[in-house]
Design brief:
This protein has 182 residues and is of the alpha/beta class. 43% of the residues lie in helices and 16% in strands. The protein contains nine helices and five strands. β2, α3 and β3 form a beta-alpha-beta unit. α1 packs across α2 and α7 crosses α8.
């Protein structure tokens, strides 16, 4: 099964077992309509609000009033509307193509870090494209502090030299329980 479908089934299960909070799904602009189609096809009982485009609501109480199970938005819309979207606490925050937050200093990443939820999930086929700091950035969202602050991480896991293989092995041991690969 694909990542999208696995997440949708899990969120449907949570709803059927009593969760009443909205979950936020953040996706690249190119995937907004794919997620909508997948929801309609596989989990049509999940009520969705799409916070995207010119017609989107500008008031979190109106969004909450719709009582959606899922709120779908793009990274760009999230960044532009962070003052609206960070006023709500979500059940899950799901980041699809989470390499979008690979730069911990970028506005997209800082916006995502400011969100509140009970649970967090990231989906990516490429957790590291250029540097291990991309992995740190995603884990800083998932489980803040687990890999230390950025300076600690750079010192202990990105150092060049004779301990590099040990550092990489140690990092793999830390993050391995949190990865699901197909």
């Amino acid at each position: 099964l694909g990542k999208t479908l696995q997440v949708l089934v899990m969120l449907l299960y949570e709803k059927e077992n009593g969760n009443r909070k909205s979950s936020l799904i953040v996706v690249p602009t190119s995937l907004v309509f794919n997620w909508i189609n997948e929801i309609k096809k596989f989990t049509p009982s999940l009520k969705i609000y799409v916070h995207y485009g010119q017609e989107r609501l500008r008031d979190i109480s109106r969004i909450s009033g719709e009582n959606p199970d899922l709120i779908i938005t793009s990274y760009a819309t999230l960044r532009n509307d962070i003052s609206i979207l960070n006023k709500k606490e979500y059940y899950y925050i799901v980041l699809d193509e989470s390499q979008q937050i690979k730069n911990p200093l970028a506005k997209n990443t800082k916006s995502v870090y400011s969100l509140k939820s009970e649970y967090r999930l990231v989906l990516t086929g490429t957790p590291v494209e250029n540097s291990y700091i991309e992995l740190w950035s995603q884990f800083a969202f998932l489980n803040p502090g687990m890999l230390g602050n950025m300076d600690y991480f750079k010192r202990n896991f990105m150092s060049i030299g004779k301990n590099k293989e040990d550092n990489v092995s140690s990092l793999k041991n830390i993050i391995n329980p949190f990865l699901l690969m197909r």
